[in-house]
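Incident log, entry 3
Record: Amidohydrolase family protein (284 residues)
Problem: checksum mismatch between cached and fresh output.
Input:
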Amino acid sequence: MIVDCHVNIWNEEHVLPLFREQMARIRPGGMSLKADADTLNEAMRGVDRAIVFALRYGDSAGIESDDETTAACVRKYPEKFTGFAYADPRRADCMELLRHAVETLGLKGVKFGPIYNGVPLDDPRMTPIYEYCQKNDLPLTMHMGTTFGANAPLDLGRAIHVDAVARRYPDLKMILAHMGHPWHEECIVCIRKQPNVYAEVSAIFYRPWQFWNTLVCAQEYLVTDKIFWGTDFPFSGVEESIAGLRNVNAVVEGTGLPRVADETIERILHSNPFERWWHRGSPV
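Fresh output:
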């Protein structure tokens, strides 16, 4: 079984000029801006199931999607997608939106991007989100690592800040997206230290040297069983993400440097969040 644990969704009207401007700067070769439900379903043909969520990064990345878009995708393709809500603690109606997403729309987890919303993990506005997630057995996926957004404060993407939250909420399952790149060691020591914290490898295979270092480090810390696979679609696709993982050792071929074990590669590729991220068992 292959599960993509990190898929973004938005419709055309959710893409702001800021996103197009920043994509032109960081990806001059261009990329598809389409990430609607039908596009996602076609793109995810190569996986058994995918976790999908909207982004509310309007003022930093230039995408302002919503939970209704996520829920509509899940309703249209229920055999393929499981939906997570998005939490923006800057909004006065954040908890109202979160309760609606979970209790009315039926979404099964929560996504948050501290670096994009400019809200530190220890901000008091995060407390009701953590408490709601822990009470309702909702895994919390967080963007960890750097970003292209010029308005996003880099320090808020560092996984070291998760440690204190994990100790405060030991029953809250947290997933650190993108292995905290380029601070992957902080991510790895955090998931090693805290039983309720996991990580995932979406959107780092296209930095081959960093990707190899990350997985070798994870092997040395014996945490490869806590790492999950994803794409970060549409920023990267299924086939290229699988190929990037399986070819991770290409950068060290012919050297005496250690290799990422085949067992590690296959364990990550076939990792199943539905077996690990919920205390009460799989939501699907």
